[in-house]
Every structure is written in structure tokens, then in C-alpha cells.
Amino acid sequence: MKQWFLIETKADYEKATARFEQIHTAKKGTEDHKEKMLLALLISQYEKKQWSLPPVDPIEMIKIRMEDFGYNASDLAKEYGDKGTISKVLNYKQPLSLTMIRKFSKLLRIPTDALTKEYKLHSS
């Protein structure tokens, strides 16, 4: 088994992903399986550093993820239960509630800390 270290360069990343592809079907309990699990962790850490979430406010993040999943305001209302409130939130007229943050984090697969960032509301 090759000795792996933290992935710090694109070249290291490419080697690690290539090796992961070679051993991704390794049976549990084998040396290749241990290597595969280590590579998955190292690759994941590198990707998080490289491709972290863009610096957008929580509402913009929700809109981006809605588009990713093909959702509209009605889909969020089904999850939360009130279309009027969803509309106000998406139009920066009302802040996200804790319940919304929990539900939308799960539905849209957004880390809760990305939804708790401060953002400005628009005055009426």
C-alpha cells in the first residue's frame, strides 16, 4: 500500500482520485479497502478546501439549491406549510426562522451554518 499524505496539489489530487478509481470496489477488511477509505477522506478534505460554498447570503443559497433540484416556492411551502411566508422570505421581506433553517437545510442539502449567516432585509 502506497503511503498517502494530505492532498495539497492538483497533481496529488489527480493521483489520489486515479488510485481511488482503481480500488473503489475493494472488499471490506482488505488492505485496498483501508487505502480506499483513507483516500475518500483525503479527497473529500481537499475538495472542501478547493470548492467551498460561494460567499452568498442564505436566501441566494436557497435559490441556487432550489434551481439545482428543480424546486419552486410551492415545493418549499409544502415542506414549511405557508406559501405567503416563503414568498416574503425569498423576497427579503422576512428573515428565515429556525424551523425554516432546519427544514430547508435538510430539503436542499445546505449546511445549517450557511443558512444562519446575517443578511439584509429589504424594507417595504
Topology:
Layout: H1 10-23, H2 31-50, H3 58-69, H4 73-80, H5 83-90, H6 98-108, H7 112-115
Helix pairs in contact: 1-2, 4-5
Can you tell me about this structure?
The radius of gyration is 20 Å and the shape is elongated. The model has no long low-confidence stretch (mean pLDDT 89). Helix 1 runs antiparallel to helix 2 (31-50) and helix 4 crosses helix 5 (83-90). It has 124 residues and is mainly alpha-helical. It has helices at residues 10-23, 31-50, 58-69, 73-80, 83-90, 98-108, 112-115. The chain contains seven helices and no strands.
Query: What Rg is obtained from the alpha carbons, in whole angstroms?
Result: 20 Å
Number of strands: 0
* Helix residue percentage: 55-70%
Q: Which regions are unreliable across 5 or more consecutive residues at pLDDT < 50? A: none
Q: The biggest beta sheet, please? A: none
The total tally of domains equals 2
CATH superfamily membership of the largest domain, which one?
lambda repressor-like DNA-binding domains
Please report the number of helical segments.
7
The CATH class of the largest domain is Mainly Alpha
**Head-to-tail CA distance between termini:** 63 Å
